[in-house]
Amino acid sequence: MVVRFILCLTLICSSFQVAFSQKTDEEPSKFQKLFIPSDTLNKARLWALNGTAVAGYTGVVLALDQIWYAQYPRSGFHTFNDMGEWEDMDKMGHLYTSYMESRMTSQIYQWSGLSRKKAAFTGFALGTIFQTTLETLDAFSTEWGWSWGDVAFNTGGGLVYLGQELLWKEQRIQLKLSSWRSKLDEITIISEDGMHSISLRERRNSLYGTNIGQIIIKDYNALTIWASVNVSSFMKNKNTKFPKWLNIAVGYGAENVYGGFSNIWEDDETGALYSLDANDFPRYRQFFLSFDVDLTKIPVKNRFIKSILAGLNILKIPSPSLEVNTLGKVKFHPFYF
């Protein structure tokens, strides 16, 4: 999950290149010209990117292997069926991450002058290679395993990007995220043996973290993954007065998720076993319908503001939302993020 957060930050940085690639009346400075994609293939830029990609890939994989995977027992190659774990919020994270990796890498390679089509295939290929490498590391770790579900969603996220580039030469359907941690009451949970206790807030914080980066990416109860559809891009009449920036978004989330497959867990320090009453804390999936804004289509001339808007476009804006969940309930949220 740390890797995903870093990738999101990198995408925000690459948004400067996206913004500067759009024509404006404003003359770019010499510094800004460095971010503008080359009109023709610039071999110096291309080889610089290739070298950076190889070095970055090698460095990240080695670092993850030593810092993360080395802390857990190794094993032979094995598979693990984790479909349904975390109410499949982890799978939605894989979908979103691979989409962003493909998109980010493609945009960066367009900076070298590579054609949009070739850059799209490059982004898809590099994103797939990186995600497959991580899955291979999982496959040799006792704690996890090779997950065909992860592979499917990793591939699917990349294909969401690549397919649109080949079909429309634009991203009419963008994957976005939103995250909002609700307040928890001071609920005390007693262990099965009655000897230990923990608050639900402590369980959440130990499982999902407390800083803003962890909450946005890691807290499955707070996270929502969206497919944001730009309506005007599907209209045949390009002169329509329908706002070009207005999107319709469908989202997926989950609630009351405090364990992988169930709300039962063992404390690593004390060995105490805890469980949540399924009647009081039913795990359920959420499906949303909402409005969104494609910030890159807001008519702004200033390049700096364009870059900021392009970076923020990975997030869905807060707006009224309709929720349908697997508890059979329908809810209206006047404000949802």
Question: What does the model show?
Answer:
By secondary structure, the chain is α+β, with helices and mostly antiparallel strands. The chain has two domains: 135 residues, no CATH class; 151 residues, no CATH class. It has nine helices and ten strands. The strands form three sheets. Strands 1-4-5-8-9-10 form a six-stranded antiparallel β-sheet. The protein is globular. The two termini are 20 Å apart.
Per-chain topology:
Layout: H1 2-20, H2 30-33, H3 43-67, H4 89-110, H5 116-139, H6 148-167, E1 173-179, E2 188-190, E3 197-199, H7 200-208, H8 212-218, E4 223-230, E5 246-255, E6 264-266, E7 273-275, E8 284-293, H9 303-312, E9 319-325, E10 330-336
Helix pairs in contact: 1-4, 1-9, 4-5, 4-6, 5-6
Mean pLDDT: 89
Number of E strands = 10
List the total number of helices.
9
The number of distinct structural domains comes to 2
Q: List segments where confidence is low: pLDDT < 50 over at least 5 consecutive residues.
A: 1-10
User: What's the end-to-end separation, in Å?
Assistant: 20 Å
Overall radius of gyration = 22 Å
Residues in β-strands, percent: 15-25%
The strand order across the widest sheet is: 1-4-5-8-9-10
The ordered H/E elements are HHHHHHEEEHHEEEEEHEE
Shape: globular
The computed structural class is alpha+beta
Query: Could you describe the largest sheet, including whether it forms a barrel?
Result: 6 strands, antiparallel
> What level of helicity do the residues show?
40-55%
